[in-house]
């Protein structure tokens, strides 16, 4: 026995469990420590007592009761607040995790459970060869979706074995952080820009990525489409409340996996959380483009985002085309300079459309801002009578539309002047029926004023629609994004405009199409297989000459054109309201939506936001806008921190610039998403 005096009166016993793989060896150790001993000293003492030859460099102390890591090794036990009743676990910081990617493939790899999720996702993306990791995050599947899967699995007699891509030799497995994999602008492309196949022996542009050429192809190529039965088993949101459940499980980017209750070998979803795909480049982004395409594809197939029947057929035709090219060996060795130019043009359009970066405002300074003037038909929905449709002379200037009885009266006062800044613009188009309409929801004091503009043809529609879209964001037609927007709208309309060719249906290649794999279940139930195949082949004629990467980019563009694109829904209760509403969070605005009808009530743009914060005691998000507009709400379908982080995240992403040498200001991200502004 040692006398207590030998230790000093202020020493005490600390119980530490050790997480090691030796079954027979001791797991719990008692250390005699003092409050002024630093964390590094505790670990040193512990390793000396364990006496097992092992590399302990990736180990750290985890405080079970407080659910936190003790990573500041120079802090003393007193400073950390650790006392004799503390239960500490000495465990590895990097653990295995299963991640389900947007293409529904599962990868198993070692991930840091002690870094904040923002950093862990960055490391994962380096391994998977995905640039711009700030656009992605980790999502915990909701109970509803898991429950539906389990129910279906019970009906299957044979156990389903999931095909998992094992990447456990990743650089982080040794506890070392991956090297900063940011490419330089002069580096050699590692993918064939057209087919997306690895074009160099290095396979990836991250020198330490464990991806082999085969694994690269699994991530960069779209693989055989699932069966209609698999589609039927997957969770499909039916209502806005269902869609809100999909977004409830985003992990907190400012806390670690372990702090959020994630265990070793758990499965999480890796998804694009923010819909601002910045600086897409076919030379370096084969995996990224494919994963965005796959996320878009599944959103369409599972009806997470609504689209018309005409649009569904376009999406089906593009999927069919991508599927054909991906399985064709001809794709592998195909390259052409002119197509690279076309793809890069499509990319610049896509980037402008998604507001990924700041466009030049030099043109805004000129005095002669372009205007549009033409006869259009105005449609005002009436509550109790037939809607009125009348032709008027419309003039579009700055961000406003005025209309007059005719051209002669255009010199005088307009019948009405509509300011479109902050309005919602929704396409109302059926190319086959020659219907080219623009639905405008204009904010007024008590909600949204709804009206429609009807155009005569595609060209007129594209010019006016582009002007409306820009005006809603507070931009005029002098902005450099106007002409690319017109071009994007016209190219989408062109894809919708097709006629049937008899040879397309009789082509023997097309007989084994399995059309049910390219459309959502609603259309599988509505049409017979042969009818669907014929309609998809009609639509395919307009996209059949596209290269693989271009087809994927067009799919992403078409997805981006949908009114619901980029909206993440949450059920909220606004301050002063007696009923629940849905809040849609987008890359540039918040929308209050009626939960029963799905109609937008009010829109608030981020560009008008002055400040936002959270009252953590009552879990209420409060936001102030220009002109003394302020809103406050509590979130019912998820933690309010998720919405708060979404808003801050989008503000953060809007600060990105190609001039900043691609380094991310992680501190700014946490400042904007943390909770105090």
From TrEMBL:
Record family assignment: Belongs to the kindlin family.
Ribonucleoprotein as UniProt keyword: no
Coiled coil: none
Cited InterPro entries: Band_41_domain (IPR019749), FERM_2 (IPR035963), FERM_central (IPR019748), FERM_CS (IPR019747), Kindlin/fermitin (IPR037843), Kindlin_2_N (IPR040790), PH-like_dom_sf (IPR011993), PH_domain (IPR001849)
GO annotation terms (biological process): basement membrane organization; cell-matrix adhesion; establishment of epithelial cell polarity; integrin-mediated signaling pathway; keratinocyte migration; keratinocyte proliferation; negative regulation of canonical Wnt signaling pathway; negative regulation of gene expression
Gene: FERMT1
Pfam families, alphabetized: FERM_M (PF00373), Kindlin_2_N (PF18124)
Protein known as: FERM domain containing kindlin 1
A GO term, aspect molecular function: integrin binding
Highest taxon above the source species: Eukaryota
GO CC annotation terms, alphabetical: cell periphery; cytosol; focal adhesion
Residue ranges of domain PH in the record: 377-473
Gene3D superfamilies reported for this sequence: Phosphatidylinositol 3-kinase Catalytic Subunit, Chain A, domain 1, Pleckstrin-homology domain (PH domain)/Phosphotyrosine-binding domain (PTB)
Keyword check for Metal-binding: no
Keyword annotations of the record: Cell adhesion
């Amino acid at each position: 026995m040692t006398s207590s005096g030998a230790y000093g009166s202020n020493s005490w016993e600390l119980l530490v469990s050790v997480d090691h793989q030796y079954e027979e060896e001791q797991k719990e150790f008692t250390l005699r420590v003092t409050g002024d001993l630093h964390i590094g000293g505790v670990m040193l003492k512990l390793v000396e007592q364990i006496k097992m030859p092992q590399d302990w460099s990736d180990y750290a102390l985890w405080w079970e009761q407080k659910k936190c890591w003790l990573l500041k090794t120079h802090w003393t036990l007193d400073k950390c607040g650790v006392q004799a009743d503390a239960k500490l676990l000495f465990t590895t910081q990097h653990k295995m995790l299963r991640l389900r990617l947007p293409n529904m493939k599962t990868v198993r790899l070692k991930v840091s459970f002690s870094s904040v999720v923002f950093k862990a996702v960055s490391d994962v993306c380096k391994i998977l060869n995905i640039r711009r990791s700030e656009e992605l995050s980790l999502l915990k599947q909701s109970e509803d979706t898991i429950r539906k899967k389990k129910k279906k699995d019970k009906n299957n007699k044979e156990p389903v074995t999931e095909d998992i891509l094992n990447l456990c030799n990743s650089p982080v497995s040794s506890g070392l952080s991956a090297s900063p994999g940011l490419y330089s602008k002069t580096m050699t492309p590692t993918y064939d820009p057209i087919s997306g196949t690895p074009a160099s022996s290095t396979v990836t542009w991250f020198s330490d990525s464990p991806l082999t050429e085969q694994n690269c192809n699994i991530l960069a190529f779209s693989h055989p489409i699932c069966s209609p039965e698999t589609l039927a088993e997957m969770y499909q949101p039916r209502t806005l409340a269902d869609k809100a459940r999909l977004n409830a499980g985003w992990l907190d980017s400012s806390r670690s996996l372990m702090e959020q209750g994630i265990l070793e070998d758990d499965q999480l979803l890796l998804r694009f959380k923010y819909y601002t795909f910045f600086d897409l480049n076919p030379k370096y982004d084969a995996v990224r483009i494919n994963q965005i395409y796959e996320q878009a594809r599944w959103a369409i197939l599972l009806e997470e985002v609504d689209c018309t029947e005409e649009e569904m057929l376009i999406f089906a035709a593009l999927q069919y085309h991508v599927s054909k090219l991906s399985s064709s060996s001809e794709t592998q060795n195909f390259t052409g300079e002119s197509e690279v130019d076309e793809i890069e043009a499509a990319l610049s359009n896509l980037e402008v459309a998604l507001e990924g970066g700041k466009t030049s405002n030099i043109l805004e300074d000129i005095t002669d801002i372009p205007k549009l003037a033409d006869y259009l038909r105005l449609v005002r929905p009436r509550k109790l009578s037939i809607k009125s449709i009348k032709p008027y002379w419309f003039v579009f200037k700055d961000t406003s539309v005025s209309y007059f009885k005719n051209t002669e009266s255009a010199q005088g006062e307009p019948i009405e002047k509509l300011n479109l800044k902050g309005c919602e613009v929704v396409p109302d188009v059926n190319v086959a029926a020659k219907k080219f309409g623009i639905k405008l929801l204009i904010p007024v004091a008590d909600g949204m004023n709804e009206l429609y503009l009807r155009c005569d043809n595609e060209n007129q529609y594209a010019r006016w629609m582009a002007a409306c879209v820009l005006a809603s964001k507070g931009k005029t037609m002098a902005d450099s994004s106007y002409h690319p927007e017109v071009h994007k709208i016209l190219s989408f309309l062109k894809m919708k405009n097709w006629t049937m060719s008899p040879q397309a249906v009789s082509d023997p290649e097309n007989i084994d199409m399995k059309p049910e794999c390219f459309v959502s279940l609603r259309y599988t139930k509505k049409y017979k297989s042969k009818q669907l195949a014929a309609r998809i082949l009609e639509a395919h004629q307009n996209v059949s000459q596209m290269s693989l990467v271009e087809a994927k980019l067009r799919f992403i563009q078409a997805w981006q054109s949908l009114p619901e694109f980029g909206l993440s829904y949450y059920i909220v209760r606004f301050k002063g309201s007696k009923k629940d509403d849905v809040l849609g969070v987008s890359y540039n605005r918040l929308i209050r939506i009626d939960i029963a009808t799905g109609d937008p009530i009010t829109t608030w743009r981020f560009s008008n936001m002055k400040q936002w914060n959270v009252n953590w005691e009552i879990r209420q998000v409060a936001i102030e806008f220009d002109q003394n507009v302020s809103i406050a709400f509590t979130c019912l379908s998820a933690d309010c921190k998720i919405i708060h982080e979404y808003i801050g995240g989008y503000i953060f992403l809007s600060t990105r610039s190609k001039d900043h040498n691609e380094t991310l200001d992680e501190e700014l991200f946490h400042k904007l998403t943390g909770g105090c502004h």
